[in-house]
Amino acid sequence: MLKTVVNMGKKKAEADKSLRTAAVVLAAGSGKRMGSSTKKQYMLVDGKPIIYYALKTFQDSFIDEIVLVASPEDIDFCRKEIVEEYGFNKVSRVVEGGRERYHSVAAGLRSIAGCDYIFIHDGARPVITEEILDRVFADVKEYQACVVGMPVKDTIKIADEKGNIATTPRRDLVWTVQTPQVFAYSLIKNAYDELLEREQELLAAGTAITDDAMVVESLTGHLVRLTKGSYENIKITTPEDIQIAESFLKKAKSCC
Predict the structure, then answer these.
(1) Which of 74, 76, 131, 173 has a beta carbon 3.0–4.6 Å from 70's, enabling a disulfide?
(2) Domains in the chain: how many in total?
(3) pLDDT tens per residue, range 167-209
(4) Is residue 12 part of a domain?
(5) How far apart are the first and last CA of the chain?
């Protein structure tokens, strides 16, 4: 019986290994809310750039290939001071991002071929862990479209245009969405191709594309699964977030 279980485990590992995975890590944002001349993804936390931490997690994981998306003026810096400096040999290329987040994602997707699953991650989320990657990978193989997130802790209110409370959604059904957002390659690539083809039409209709799940939901109708991430998987947006992320990273480092 034990031998059978071991053999089954080997077959599963071999099957997983046959699936090619890639990550698109976004570092093309300007980070205006940080109030700093240095873009947030390159600010130092514990002596290393914020973008280092996300790349290090993907580098050390089962992910086969990483594409880093950066602003045009930062491409050489990323190649020399990030990829080469820290030996991120899974980063196959640094590509130029676009005006909006979805343009940057599309640029990353276009640079990858022959892939089964794509992990799309914000480089300003440095506290991503391999455990989160394992969970969402297991889910995406079943559901084909997954986003990492966590149930909210606070009661949420929906406001009207005048700033009054309009509705109060059930807290047990409300999640904050994080990254990575993970999809079967063909599903997300086709959704983004359609988005770019219909971009002007969607903009004219007032559609605001805020994340990758929304692209899949809106343009394919495919259900997107929520996978638990971590309350520590924060996105650095304001100066206060840097202190919080630094404490989480130090705690993780002390546990290893």
Answers:
(1) 74
(2) 1
(3) 999 999 999 999 999 999 999 999 999 999 999 999 999 888 8
(4) no
(5) 34
